[in-house]
Write a structure and sequence with these properties.
globular, 13 helices, 75% helix, mainly alpha
Amino acid sequence: MRRGSYLIGALAFIVAAAIAPWLPPWLVSLATIAFANALVVLGLIILWRTGLVPFGQALFYAVGAYTVALLGRYTPIRDVFVVVIVGAVFAGIIAWLVGFLLARYREIFFAMLSLAMSMILYGILVKTETLGSTDGFHVEAGTFLGFRPDGQERNLAIYWLVLGFSAVLAFLVSLYFSSVAGALGNPIRDNEIRVEFLGISVDRLIHLKLVISGVLAGVGGALAALAVQHVDPAMAYWTTSGGFVFVTILAGAGSVAAAFVGSLVFELVRSLAVDFVPGEWQMILGTVLLLTILFLPDGLGSLVSRLRGNKAAS
């Protein structure tokens, strides 16, 4: 069953990569951002399964993005694979440091502390002239193993880069969910004292999940910075974190694939709403969220399990 899911996921990424040259440029750009943001949502799902909802995931997203931007501005490093990995490492280090504090708290205290961390970074970015202050600054175009594409070729190259990272990280997160540490998410949410009785430190396990979540958000931010070629303090603002939480509710925590489907649906709905009813796009997004909670409380990912249940029943 699991091998079949891996094959379907691999096939989906291959098809998404193969049809890219025939897609309209706007859809390629939209899917690029959607899949980059889906990596942040994957990290949220890891924490969500333990019952933790961070409202400050934009902290790690912005660290990954600004790392890429600063490498382009102050160093000769341009290779996209190198800068994304460096952005992920820096985001992971920040997650490891703040994890010593966050892992000790639960529920609303965890959510608010993570939000506070994110807003501290936002304040630093706004007040620092060398980091572009409120305007941010331009991100230098990256190279792909020495090759520097331009125009639509560059957009396609970034799209394939995002797909490549997404496929690898989705596979690794699936393996993590199959491990003991990953499978303990739900037991921690239900009753963490019982998990402690097994001789497992829940605080350390949550710390590990925070670091993994931070690395995923760092990769997402780094890829988004390369795609947009601009960074600004809004990447660390609370509304950015709120958007990631929105997509996680829409997707649900049931599967890895749901993160990518939910992120793509969110970007499509938002873009179409802004395009056709620019004055009411927030109301439309709110309506979508309300309908999701009312009719799909476990998110879009629950549709697959419902279909499987119906087939089994028939």
